[in-house]
């Protein structure tokens, strides 16, 4: 039996880690790593599967016979809309490790705002012994926007910590013990929310979604005093000028941001200097290379056994 064509890999993060894991990944067929200059002019016309993250613009012209595309992360907005995108399945990366990492970050950020950690840090730098009285988690409502794999896990773990948790998605989901809302219930959802957690995918409908008008609809008389915005979904779903304005005006009492309109965040961006704002460099849930390649290997094996691929993107909705 002839050796099957190698897997095409075009990933724009951690090239050293990707190269290291590729030494043992796809042992039955090998791989073509476009980060390796030796592959710059290689003929890709025989390749059947591509694992990509922010791929080269001419990738699909160079590899016209692909059967499936695998995203290097949970999001697929870096693929949707590319010129020449073939009508083949696009598969999201869903993995226990990535999901757990995201929930860790979300829970941590909610607790930082609950317990006034920014104020504690400020007092520590000034060597001030200043006790704070924080509300209980049960007094605070966390509203999670986006109830896919990541959102559902975050909801479950926030509930374990004692928060009152509600959820919003484009179409309503049923979650035991959690009040949920759909598109028509957005204002009701926002009006009950003290900490807004954004885990939405990026689509035309969610671009610029988190703006001043939305922030003004959050609950302003809850246990935290002022609402908080947390986003680890997609940077282009937020209007950063509106976040800055909302923090300065008191519409928002704080924020935690892992994603930004332009990355890396520029050194002159005013978000760096705002009080009660926590910034992380898009590493809330970094794709771990070993888990990513195991996921792709498993999906290719399913596909070649004639079984349906899992986590396939619905192009009509963009995720």
UniProtKB/TrEMBL annotation:
It comes from the Bacteria. Pfam families: 2-Hacid_dh_C (PF02826). Gene3D superfamilies: NAD(P)-binding Rossmann-like Domain (3.40.50.720). Residues 108-282 form the D-isomer specific 2-hydroxyacid dehydrogenase NAD-binding domain. GO terms for molecular function: glyoxylate reductase (NADPH) activity; hydroxypyruvate reductase [NAD(P)H] activity; NAD binding. It is an enzyme of class 1 (oxidoreductase). Its EC number is 1.1.1.79, 1.1.1.81. This is Glyoxylate/hydroxypyruvate reductase A. It comes from Rhizobium leguminosarum.
